[in-house]
Amino acid sequence: MPLYNPQKPDRVFACELNFQPGEEIEDSQLVQIHTDLWHQAKDVQAEYTRQGGRRDEKPINVARAILEDFESYLP
User: N or C terminus: which one in the chain shows less Cβ crowding within 10 Å?
Assistant: First the structure.
C-alpha cells in the first residue's frame, strides 16, 4: 500500500516490489486519507501523553505489539 506522510509532502512511499520507480499511483483520495490518519494518530498520541502513558526508547510498531505485552504502558 502506498503511504503518504504530510510532513514529507513531496514524496509517496511505496514498496519497490509492488511499484516501479517513477510509476504513477492513481488514487485521488490517497493524500487526503493518509493526512486524516496522520492527524488522528497525532491526536491519539497527544491523549496518551496527556493521560500519563509510558514512553519507550525503542519504537513501538505492529511487530512489537504482537510479540510483547504492553499492558504496563496503559495508565
Answer: C
Chunked into runs of 10 residues, the chain (75 residues) has average pLDDT values of: 84 81 82 91 89 79 84 73
Q: What is the pTM of this model?
A: 0.59
The HSE-up count of residue 13 (CA atoms within 13 Å, CB side) is 7
- Cβ–Cβ < 8 Å for 58, 34: no
- Rounded to 5°, the CA angle 24-61-44 comes to 90
- For residues 42 and 13, give the distance between their C-alpha atoms in angstroms, rounded to a whole number: 19
All three cell numbers of 54, joined, read: 509510558
Alpha helices in 1-52 (DSSP H): 30-50
